[in-house]
Design goal:
alpha/beta, Putative deddh 3'-5' exonuclease domain of three prime repair exonuclease, metal-binding, about 15% strand, Nucleotidyltransferase, domain 5, hydrolase, 3'-5'-DNA exonuclease activity
Length: about 210
């Protein structure tokens, strides 16, 4: 059943290990929310003036492997005095999403196999859950549908960004926020297709599970 999504929450998480490792713990979470009506009037280089952001770092109580350190630019020493993911964190995220105009859809690149199940696991471990009406959509598939049929779709978000903008996004190097901003700019570059794709291809966030 299709929905007219009113708020898109672009998200990315950093973890202690590879996406395939379901024992990974979150080290950073970035959520950037924008209303659909603000997005559709923007061009691909200008973001909406009204953006709601939540960026949190976590002490994971687990060693961060070398590849994850390289990708996120975070070490265990950096996070030594940060709090871990707790019930209070879960409630903070729930309140952040609750105040947004709904329907609300989380959007993540490779979210189906990475961001959504890992975030779901963190919520379950503190005996919390997002509202049943929170939706989610994997932007990899939405961006794939936005490409002409005769063009191969890059697997990495940064390569899709380069195809549209012929450069890298400046600033905030190595952060989850930079990754989310790249995704947001790409979504704007293909907005005529992407947002309607989300209306039809969303999933319920609480349908995800991870052992």
């Amino acid at each position: 059943m299709s929905k007219y999504i009113k708020t898109f929450v672009f998200m990315h998480i950093a973890t202690t290990g590879l996406p395939e490792d379901n024992t990974s713990k979150m080290t950073e979470l970035c959520l950037i929310a924008a209303e659909r009506e603000h997005l559709i009037v923007c061009n691909r280089t200008n973001l909406p003036r009204v953006l709601n952001k939540l960026v949190l770092c976590f002490q994971p109580d687990k060693d961060i492997n070398e590849r994850a350190q390289y990708v996120s630019d975070l070490t265990n020493e950096d996070l030594e005095h940060q709090s871990g993911f707790s019930k209070a964190t879960a409630l903070q995220i729930k309140e952040f999403l609750r105040r947004l105009p709904g329907p609300v859809c989380l959007v993540a690149y490779y979210g189906d196999r990475y961001d959504f199940p890992i975030l779901q696991k963190e919520f379950r471990q503190v005996e919390e859950a997002l509202s049943e009406d929170i939706l989610c959509a994997d932007s990899f598939w939405g961006f794939k549908d936005s490409f002409p049929n005769d063009q191969p779709v890059p697997s990495k978000l940064i390569d899709i960004y380069r195809k549209y903008f012929d450069r890298e996004l400046a600033g905030t190097a190595g952060t989850t926020e930079k990754y989310v901003l790249m995704m947001l700019h790409v979504a704007l570059a293909c907005k005529d297709i992407f947002f309607r794709w989300c209306d039809v291809n969303y999933k319920q966030f609480n349908s995800f599970a991870q052992n």
